[in-house]
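Hello,

Our lab assistant flagged a job as stuck in the queue for most of the afternoon. It eventually completed. Since we weren't sure the result was trustworthy after the delay, we are filing this so someone can double-check. Below is the sequence as submitted and the structure that was eventually returned. Let us know if re-running is recommended.
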Amino acid sequence: MPSGSGAEGEARSFRMFHDDSMKSFFRRLTFTPDGSYLLTPAGCVESGENVTNTTYVFSRNNLKRPVGHLPCPGKGTLAVRCCPVYFELRGASAKDEISPKSPPALFSLPYRLVFAVASEDSVLFYDTEQSFPFGYVSNIHYHTLSDISWSSDGSFLAISSTDGYCSFVTFEEDELGVPLKEKPQIHVRTPGAAADKKAKKTQSHKENKLDFLEARHPNLCISRPSPHPSFLTTGA
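-- returned structure --
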């Protein structure tokens, strides 16, 4: 990734992710449940000889450059998993408890999402209303963590390790937040939908031109294309 200039004005490049020197057989990235953001582990931020482990946040609208990152103070991050439950935004009282010096939120959503980031030896818990973790779990396994997974109701997080054991982090009712009564309506544009919309717009434009020609030249014989393709069949 190009960033800044060298001592002699030459552009310098920095790696965004760890290479194969990172001792991991997997890098488990994920989209948020609404598909708005892509969360990618195994990131790194190079500053001179110092390297900070991080998790990058990409917007679905622009996957070329991250909109932010979530530093991990310990070892490299391996996996990101989002809680499938949508939560209400915090009230004014809860916002007052957050320090005014807190970093601004990286996400702009009408609801609150919770996700967990697993590093080699710890798990950090984040939500989409703040850019620093609200929970931290470590020293629960003898070897490197391998994966994490939420229950369907968000009541617990399962953590697996290469030592052959699993741990469970449980949450009391409403501990993570107040769930929305109904899941929000998600409107996400996909490449296929955009192509269909463009094709319909083009077809409508052609039909308008034909209507105009028929109005100007009523005696003109105009052949309109069939909306459905025809197939020729031949007998044996």
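-- support follow-up --
The delay was a queue issue, not a problem with the job. The result is valid. Confidence is low (pLDDT under 50) at residues 92-98, 230-234. The radius of gyration is 26 Å.
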